[in-house]
Amino acid sequence: MAIISWGTIKSLLIFFGPVLIPKAISFYRSLKNAPKIHGLKIQPCPSAVFRSILLLLTLSIIFLVRTLPIFSPENVFAVTQSRLQIPSDVLFNRLSSIRPNGSLNEFDIALRNKFVNMESRLLYLQLGPKVLAECPFCSADEPNSYMYYALPDILWPHLFNWAVIALVTSRLVMGRVGGQWRGYATIAGILIAALDVYLVVTYNYASNRRMTRLQDIDFFYWKARFGRAVALAGLDTLLGLVMYLSSTNRAFVNPPSPAERIEGVTRVLGGVKGKINALGVVKNTASRDEELRARSTAYWNHEVRLMRDVMEEREVIEGMSNALENRIDIETITRDADLYAANMLQPLQQPHGPLLHPPQEEKDKGV
User: Is the pTM of this model over 0.70?
Assistant: First the structure.
């Protein structure tokens, strides 16, 4: 496997850095300012999305826990500190000496029966102990038979993860937030599974044939198992993160469609109309009730007297004079007020326009 040196990495960073760093900064700013551009506010995470994120994080933790040595399949060469070329009898005698009862179990016996030549040991390093010991139709003379038997064991974590992703990104369960990321998550899961299968199938297991020291042996199965779990955990964590950011309008904002905007405006206008109607009912009731009408009249009379007294104070008069002379453009305010009043009264005057302003021809006839 080719190894990229640190000097090559620095050269690539120096060459591509001036181009990629500004683009990354502009991309970050666009994500940060997207909610403001679309007029959206940051909101709490919806309960359905929170449950989905919790499920994804739990699954990620399970994948990472499975990478711990206590949950990994046993490597007979590592636990016995044996070379790959060691005779089978010596290897399993060492293995039996570390067993609790001093004897091999059924799985060890099945594995020993499959260690017939170097080819089977190389397949053991590539596909793991379970495939080699439990496959009923496989033979070291046909290495592909072990590969066929190993494919379901390789793919089941991906299939299970796809099922969870399909659940948490379903529009029926999560709504628009989940459906936004369904395609991306599915494609990412397919790419990870395809890469996993490709690396296992194309692995050159014969490269371990010449390794005479334990430290030089490439335990591919255990490395692939570790990388598979980390990749799936990273995918689920990343999906949970982008779902959280998009559901709270912090980033990756999906602007509402025109139909949703119209529905939102209609809902707001309906609420405003309801409040105006309620206010009209209250004012109508206050005007018709003698006691409430008297209290309203007394309130406004008191308000007028209070404001008149306030406006006659010396400090208020001086402050208003200062504001009118130096800070406020009276002409602009007057012009805006006239325009506002004209726009407000124009719909009310329109039906009576012909009566208030008769055509010139009628005036001439009258004359």
Answer: no
